[in-house]
Design brief:
Blueprint: H1 3-9, H2 15-23, E1 27-29, E2 32-33, E3 46-48, E4 51-53, E5 60-65, E6 93-94, E7 103-109, H3 112-119, E8 127-133, H4 139-147, E9 150-151, E10 154-155, E11 160-165, E12 168-173, H5 180-187, E13 192-200, E14 203-204, E15 213-215, H6 218-226
Parallel strand pairs: 7-13
Antiparallel strand pairs: 1-2, 1-3, 3-4, 5-7, 5-15, 6-7, 8-12, 8-13, 9-10, 11-12, 13-14
């Protein structure tokens, strides 16, 4: 694997942070300075500042993200982050983002290759949201969501939509644009007052209270790989 991915898997830094370490000359591979294009094999010896590093066990966690927590590893404003809710070792990072006030299913892992593919729109990973909105969406509004909404960054793909109550609807999408569900609902005249992601790639939050997490079962990891 590429050297920056190796360092990320070893819990040293994010891939971007690993690039900075490599460019600063702080990383060696078999005693020689590592380069951005260096590939690492199992027999290679990698060190940072002279200290050897090794790959961590691949870990996959499902978190029930509570409101008010940001989806990042660290926050300049010192708000609580999702990585503070899960074990510090091995180091994991969130797959995709939920905004601070959106709750629900969030996957965290140190499997960078899988995370990258799951986050890529080409693979169409399904995400299901439950939204409480202003007003009472009528059938015309729901059909518009099903057909696709014209947003400022282009039309959305068709969504699966069903009514949960007078002002509550469920949407299933397979894109991952910034604030997409909120923008879609605002576009049909029903701004979101509460948003919850109830499922991600077929993973649900059954048994998890806000702030709780669990490790994925091997069968669930296989399911994620098949969703690639």
């Amino acid at each position: 694997m590429r050297l920056n991915a190796y360092l990320a898997r070893a819990g040293v830094a994010s891939r971007r942070g690993a690039d900075e370490l490599i460019k600063a000359g702080r990383v060696t591979v078999n005693g020689e300075p590592g380069q951005l294009n260096t590939f690492v094999q199992s027999r290679d010896r990698v060190a940072v500042d002279g200290e050897p590093v090794a790959l961590q066990k691949l870990t996959y966690l499902l978190l029930h993200k509570p409101a008010g927590v940001v989806t990042t590893a660290r926050d300049p404003q010192r708000r609580p982050t999702v990585v503070e809710l899960v074990p510090a070792e091995p180091r994991v990072v969130p797959v995709g983002r939920l905004d601070a006030y959106t709750t629900g299913a969030l996957l965290l892992t140190n499997d960078g290759q899988l995370a990258h593919r799951l986050a890529h729109p080409r693979y169409g990973v399904e995400k299901t949201y439950e939204a409480t909105v202003e007003g009472k969406p009528d059938d015309v509004a729901l059909q518009a969501l099903r057909d696709g909404i014209e947003l400022d960054d282009g039309p959305t793909a068709p969504a699966r939509v069903r009514r949960l109550g007078p002002n509550r609807i469920e949407l299933t999408i397979h894109e991952g644009r910034n604030h997409q569900v909120r923008r879609m609902l605002e576009a049909v005249g029903h701004p979101v007052t509460r948003l919850h992601r109830s499922a991600y790639a077929g993973l649900t939050l059954e048994g998890l209270e806000p702030g709780q997490w669990r490790e994925l079962e091997p069968s669930e990891v296989d399911q994620l790989r098949r969703s690639e």
